[in-house]
Every structure is written in C-alpha cells, then in structure tokens.
Design brief:
eight-stranded antiparallel barrel, Porin, mainly beta
C-alpha cells in the first residue's frame, strides 16, 4: 500500500496511546463487520464486498481497519466510446468516534487514510492504477442483542492523485461484537 500506509498506522497508534492509558479500567470491545459497499466516482457506480475489524477502546473512541474487493464494475460512455471501470481492491485505517444513543444504538464518525486500486478497459486495452485517499464519514450501528447487529455508513474518499475522481461510498453490513 505505498509507504504512507505504515506511517498512517503509526500515527494512529501514537494518537491512541493517551486513550489506552485511560482505558485500563474500561474493557475494550473487538468487533467486525462484513458487508457490501456501493461507490460512485467519476460517473461510475461500482460495488465491493467489505470487511472491517476494529477495537472500541472506550465507549467513545476506537480504531478499525477495512479491506474490500470489487464485485461489480460499470460501463461508461464518453463521446461514443465505451469503457469499463472497476475498483479491484481497497484498504484503509480509521480512527472512529462513537456516540452511544441507547445501549444498542451508536452513531459513529470515521477519519482515516486508504489506498484503492482501479482497473479500466478501453477498446481491449486494460490499465490499472492506485490512489491514496483521505477518508471521512458518518454512520450508525444497531445491535439486536449483545453480539449481533447491522451497520450502515457513508464514507467520502478524497483521492490525492489527480487520476482518480473522489468517491462517495454507501455501505451496509452485518456487525459482530466478539
């Protein structure tokens, strides 16, 4: 994932140290999600399967990692020429803020850094490129019981590379507290 991904992980870890020191009296919560995300970037609508693994360090702060793989591409017609656009895979790390509204419902906000690889096909020629992004978003998570629930969220990916159009990602998934 480029050399900036380890730096982002290190910065996120250092930022979490004060929270970890306070969290010694509060037990952390490990969670995961598995779901589907739909992304709109540059006029193309693509779909991915997403997996997340996170740790809620306090009732209000956590960190999570996310990976996704493309499962739906899109055709784009430009000046009578058809091309295919696909997101092949993506990975990101996030700091997550939680706002518990009820024992089973949390609102959340995420800020992170990611890398996404894209593939385009035009007139039989295929090209791949990847782009780093600053990601931020909001969402909600509802638990049906102590361990199982559903999570929905919106994430904006602002790509640093000029080749990639910024993306709006909507996702829904099964959430599990371990």
């Amino acid at each position: 994932m480029k050399s900036l991904m380890p730096a982002a992980l290190a910065a996120l870890s250092v930022a979490a140290l004060p929270v970890l020191a306070q969290a010694q009296t509060v037990s952390s919560e490990v969670y995961g999600t598995l779901g589907y995300g739909t992304s709109r970037a540059g006029g193309a609508d693509t779909g991915t399967l997403q997996g997340r693994l996170g740790v809620k360090l306090t009732p209000h702060f956590g960190v999570e990692g996310e990976v996704s793989g493309g499962v739906k591409d899109d055709n784009i017609d430009t000046a009578g020429v058809r091309s295919t656009f696909e997101q092949t895979h993506s990975a990101a790390v996030y700091g997550v803020g939680f706002l518990p509204l009820t024992p089973n419902l949390d609102l959340l906000a995420r800020l992170g850094y990611g890398n996404t690889q894209f593939k385009t096909r035009l007139a039989g020629a295929e090209s791949k490129f990847d782009a780093d992004s600053v990601n931020y978003g909001i969402g909600a998570q509802y638990r049906f019981d102590d361990h199982n629930g559903v999570r929905v969220d919106y994430t904006r990916q602002q790509f640093r590379d000029n080749d990639a159009a910024d993306a709006n990602v909507l996702s829904i998934g099964y959430a599990r507290k371990f």
